[in-house]
Design goal:
The complex is a heterodimer of chains A (about 650) and B (about 300). With about 650 residues, chain A is mainly β. Helices cover about 5% and strands about 55% of the residues of chain A. In chain A, β30 and β31 form a beta hairpin. Chain A starts with a helix and ends with a strand. Chain B is mainly β. Chain B is built from two helices and 22 strands. Chain B has helices spanning about 1-30, 45-55; strands spanning about 60, 65-70, 75-80, 85, 85-95, 105-120, 125, 135, 145-150, 160-170, 170-180, 180-185, 190-195, 200-205, 215-225, 240-250, 255, 260-265, 270-275, 280-290, 295-300, 305-310. In chain B, strands 13, 14, 15, 16, 17, 18, 19, 20, 21 and 22 form a ten-stranded antiparallel β-sheet that branches. In chain B, strands 1, 2, 3, 5, 8 and 9 form a six-stranded antiparallel β-sheet that branches. Chain B has a four-stranded antiparallel β-sheet with strand order 7-6-10-11, with no helix packed on it. Classes of the chains: A mainly beta (about 650), B mainly beta (about 300). The interface of A and B includes residues 347, 399 and 507 of A.
Chain lengths: ~650, ~300
Amino acid sequence: MIGVILLSAILLGDTLTTSSQNLDEVVVVSRGQGGKRSTKGQVATIDEHLQELNHVELVRRGSYAWEPMVNNMQTERLSTTIDGMKIFYACTDKMDPVTSYVESSNLQSITLNSGLNGNPQATGNIGGALDLKLRKAGFLHHLDSRDIYKFNANTGYETNGHVQVYGADGAYSSKQFYVNGGAFYRHADNYKAGDRRKVDFSQFQKVNAFVNSGYRLAPNDALEGTFIYDRATDVGYPALNMDVAKAEAFITSLAYKHLFENSIWESWETKGYYNHITHIMDDTTRPDVQIHMDMPGKSWTSGFYSTLTSQFTWLRVPNGVSLNIDGYYNRLFADMTMYPGGAAPMYMVTWPDVGTLNMGAAITDDIRLTDHSTVHLSGKLSWQHQRLNNEEGYKALRVFFPGMHQQYHQTTGRIAANYQLSTVNHQFNIGAGWGSRAPTVTEAYGYYLNNTFDQYDYIGNPRLKNESAIELNTSFNFTILPSFNFSIDANAFFFSNYIIGQFENRLSAMTVGAEGVKVYGNISHATIANATLSAEWRPVKGLRWQAKGSYSTGRDDEGDYLPLISPFSYQTRLSYATGSLAFQAEVKGNALQSNYGEKYGETKTNAWTVVGLSGSYAWSHIVLRAGVENLFDRYYSTYADWCHIPQKGRNIYVNLSFEL
Amino acid sequence: MKKVKGLFLVLVVVALTACNSNDDGVQAGIEIPGITITDDIDCCSAEEALQVYRFLQTLKIVPELQTDVDGKYNVFAYTKTGDFHNGYNEVFFVATKKATGNYIKNFEISGLNPLMHMVKMDMYHSTPVGPVAESFNDGYLAVKRTWVSFIMNTSDAGNWNLSYDALILGAKGGIEKHDIVVNALPDGQAWVKSFKAGNDTYYLSLVNPSDFETGTNEIQAYISKKSAKATDPYQVATETFIVDIDPRMPDMGNHTSPNNTPLVKQEDGSYKGTINLTMTGLWRIHLTVKDEQGNVVAGDSELSSLYWDVTI
């Protein structure tokens, strides 16, 4: 019987160790039901899958490597882990959010925990925590008699930008051993925005290969290894002054899993991991470059976590507890060499080889108070030590902070509680939490990092205090039987010592054309609040209508608007499915962004509405998906499009998946 | 027990004997190529000689300035590179006894006089020099230091010669108008500049540009006054100035750095301040010279046309 649990534990990954209650949202990337998924299916990028989630927006700097925002907070306030592993981007300009170093084919699912209630490995997750679950073939059920072989092939083509996608993967499972692996290739030329306007430097190319395997040492013990190699080349960033010659990641881990029998303990997983990223920017293909620059960045991380889960009844109340300890050591180094024509090159260290050693302990507890009500508690305490290993970078920063040290340490923590009451036709949730985060390397030690969003050079501030926030959230969901469902979901974050770039008029900009210099600082308080209303109606079998509207607001300590806060956004979908055929029509848009962060260099974004159609047909082993995005070829950009680069114009796609 | 005690005694005796024999070996142990250590009180002890020898290893000899005094002594001059360049050059002198090769502790180098012959106009002028060469600390008694700051390099337009007087244990010597070559600095380096105040011409010589690195640096300079007779070496100015510095990167839209402090006169006659350099590359250090009352004497208050160039 235990063997069966192990099988399902590994196949489904997130269901055993993580209770479904603390998962706000799941994107199911590979096969399966019960989550969200891009209509493009297996061929869709991770970014396209992420767009399906509530609370998530994506910052676009080009057509590749979008930066996820959760609850209107960017990377600094989020945790992104790959199967619980920490990984840190290597580009000082945020061209490479870590989600860009995996492919859809690598993943089983992406889970999002909104707000402070993160997965056990998450640290600094004020806005939310994303965990990308790797896809593992899993061991064979002990009742199955024959080993399983599987094969998948995907291909896709998009007219706009001649996007080509080719992927293939295979899996083998036995009772003792499993292995699955595959390779993926994407290629895109420059795309055209609405009105057939070409967007230069929006091309990209990417290859990805992965292998996951497991070996069962004993009926209740297994070793699992994962390996991902990902390499993007010739990636254009129309919103920035530079492109990327190469962004390369090497991600690997080895885990040991044990399941307990007849014990209050349920499972124990210990994983060791290593990953490194090399990121090389390139401006040699750009016209009118005043000063050619080399800007490489490197990130490497080594770490471990160990998670023990338990199910027990205490005072007649069933508890599901998970205990986690984790640790990692990360090093971030980036430098910049500028070549003015004829004169000596100018060199500076932009991330001074910061070594961060972080140790944390986390606990979560799911308490089933009654049949209708549950309480979910989570908490984590982390300590970290940072050292500036590069002397030149350290000395340069000391010009601005003469009293600074070469080493710093911070203690951060988070605690969150959630109460849920469910009846047949309604569900009510209320939660609260407090959490803090340490400043990022860019915020604390970044050196003249030019931000094209507001055209300022940013200097880190080693004297920053930790930022903290109190979160309140609630949701209410009711169903008017049999077919109408309505829900409201709202959260608010009350920040103390909110970290944001502040004007420093006494300093002179470095980048030619920059407006000035900002130094990261703490502002005493800030508020971000979000509310979403959604409705779903299924009048007849197969027909479904969904509608969603979201409103967000963000203000700083002076009551001024924060930048990159979504305007009112809406989306409505009508879908129809019968047998192997499915159709969907979608209208989505944003209202005029009138509450934009003018003080922070943000400019207004106009309202927009686009229409999309999609359909799919499954036939034997083959699934055909096709659709049109931006049907009326509207020229538009969203508030999250960096420097207002336009979105894709009309795009027709056709994807073919073959599964054996 | 007795046996153990006896053994212990033997060990102690052996150890003491070993100690004694080592004591004698200290001086015999130091060997400096080309130098014989004797009990000559004019010369360095073995430790002092070694220290001087090691220091000189970090420099290079300038062959043109070598001379023989009275057939008994040699005088050698050293610079960092073994030659001269435009701007401030530190010059070190040592004198040795020919018999032993050992360094003489007390000797004098004076009258350092560089002279430029401007070929076309057939005119002569000198350049800023440091005061009489002196030992720069007790540890280096036998090394005398001074400096010369060349306001132009050797070229078709003109060439340099140099003279100095040496007084070694009562014997007089020196060199008279030995031709030397002063190399031009590479592009992006300009370490000596002149300004006029009233009827006088002054020279600003930057001392330590080669030590600059990214971060906070001490900046040191000398201000020398052109002599009434141009062929006399220009001595350090007796007037007191304050020099504001404004480092800029002309290749980066005149990017500058914060928290620089002006050059202020020190007891030793040099000027010192603090310069912050945010990256490597060409830094143009704009200078505004003020008198003690703060009145601008030379240079503009904004992006002064009086500047040094330093490329790090």
